[in-house]
Amino acid sequence: MAVKAEIRDGFKFRGGSPALDLAATVVGRLGATPRDLLATPADLDRWLVAAELAEGPPGSTEGNLVQARSLREALYRLGLSRAQGVALPDVDRDLLNGYAALPAASLQLDTDGRARLSGDVRGLLAELAREGVSLLGGDFWHRIRQCEGPPCAVLFVDTSRKGDRRWCSMSACGNKAKVAEWRKRERG
């Protein structure tokens, strides 16, 4: 089984869940000048393809972009609540449930034997919402973490055996932390 790249078409896929990967489409979320990677409908199309939810650009509209951003922010706040062990915000829970109740893209077995989603952007967002509900309310809700690498805000599912993973990616934030710790020891 091939390992998928952590960065595809300029988007980070380090969350272990498409729902958390959508939440990672704001760069520098904790900084003074966060940057939205979903700036246009074409960006949303690119993300859906990079996330392997669509074969090709599904034709996102401005309305779809607004929906995706609201879903993203609800998923981020709900995931952060799980990571911090606090109550889930009712407004975000209701919004997520509303998207999850919409008709989702259908899963179909393609001629090449692979499972693929088929549907419009709204259906793909509904599928993402269902993924979020399954994650946030399923068996791994207690394994949702926020990366400890400053200033990273990426949320991820900790699938390590001990449940003590600290970084969204060992090759990115984990490596930076280890290098910084090594330099600190060398100076001290």
From TrEMBL:
Pfam families tied to this protein: ABATE, zf-CGNR
Gene3D superfamilies: Jann2411-like domain
InterPro entries membership: ABATE, ABATE_dom_sf, Znf_CGNR
Positions of the Zinc finger CGNR domain: 143-185
Domain of life: Bacteria
SUPFAM superfamilies reported for this sequence: Jann2411-like (SSF160904)
Coiled-coil regions, chain positions: none
Protein name from the UniProt record: RNA-binding Zn ribbon-like protein
Organism for this UniProt entry: Caulobacter rhizosphaerae
